[in-house]
Amino acid sequence: MSRKLVVEADGGSRGNPGPAGYGAAVVDALTGEVLAEAAEAIGRATNNVAEYRGLIAGLRAAATVDPGARVEVRMDSKLVVEQMSGRWQIKHPDMKPLALEARDAASGFSAVVYTWVPRARNTRADALANAAMDAAARGETWSPSPPVAAPEPAPAPPKGGWLPPSTEPTRTLLLRHGQTPLSVERRFAGVGDIPLTDVGRAQAEAAARHLEPAGIDVIVASPLRRAQDTAKAVAAVTGAEIRTEEGFRETDFGAWEGHSFAEVAERWPDDLAAWLSDSGHAPPGGESFTAVAKRVATARDKVLVRYRRQTVLVVSHVTPIKTLVQLALEAPDTILYRVHLDTASLCTVDWYDDGPAVVRSLNETHYLT
User: Where do runs of H (alpha helix) occur along the chain?
Assistant: First the structure.
């Protein structure tokens, strides 16, 4: 799987228009290490022009680090984020060529997503932009700080030996939502907003009591109702805040939604056979497991960056949780067809900064009895 990079970009103008500059940093999504920086004073310009120039510089810097990476761009410019995401039209003539240049700079990466962040969370890029403008005001040109020498590598373990991971992990507790009417009848339940049953609500409350002493720092939940309701039950007991993450929603099963396995086998036998043998095959009108894996990996990376070395409860569904376990084990995608997860079951995965992940539990349900 390709590497995940974060581009933090900003631009500013002292006068709008006025003396302007931009700053950008490329950060390793897992470790938080700054891999590249760029900043420049660009003369007289508007804030919007400077922000676009910062985006372009950040994408180009990321390409020098890893041209095939997955990239998340974080900016406090709502305009640039919405326009580059395709949700807002680009009407100003000064913005159109800059947007095209930015799209060209982004075209080589395996994926690029744009995220708006508050200014308080974009201080690194803002500081770089201001440093470039300050240098220009002094008649100087901004230059990056001298690189810090890399530390000596750790000694290799002796042959046949084993060394534990070298850092404190980010712990993810992976909780499947409680029982729903479709799970009782063993029907495909994808993106439909299905409620919990009475049993499902009782399961969520039992899981909450079990998780109360776990020291949960934040709850990250799928946007679907059954996951949100399960998350709310845990939040009521633990006091943890709930954040919604679209990447952790269930697979879109398309035409199969609400049907049993037997019904699907009867009506779509060829599609079902292909789906069972090829994770890249999607149900009619639906989503393949390969597509799900991409967004789940991105959501996982967001969690590891935003909540590094914390305990995170992820409330999700069968496919995303199995995918997270697969990613942790570096297992083939056939594992998706070989693992069973009960409703309201719990899995625990520790993710370490230096690479390895450890699956500590799978399909725990003892607290439900």
Answer: 47-65, 78-84, 95-106, 123-137, 181-184, 198-211, 225-238, 261-267, 269-277, 289-306, 318-329
Supply the residues annotated as catalytic: 177, 250
- Report which secondary-structure segment, H or E, holds 278: none
Whole-prediction pTM: 0.58
Cis peptide before 332 (omega within 30 of 0): no
Q: Please give the single-letter amino acid code of residue 54.
A: G
Instruction: State how beta strands 18-28 and 34-45 pair.
Output: antiparallel
Quick: pLDDT tens for 178-225. 999 999 999 999 998 899 999 999 999 999 999 999 999 999 999 999
Q: Which CATH number fits domain 170-368: 3.30.930.10, 3.40.50.2000, 3.40.50.1980, 3.40.50.1240?
A: 3.40.50.1240
**Direct distance between the N- and C-terminal alpha carbons of the chain, in angstroms, rounded to an integer:** 39
- Nearest Cα residue to 64 out of 38, 42, 40, 85: 38
pLDDT at 350: 95
Q: Give me the residue spans of the domains in the chain.
A: 4-137, 170-368
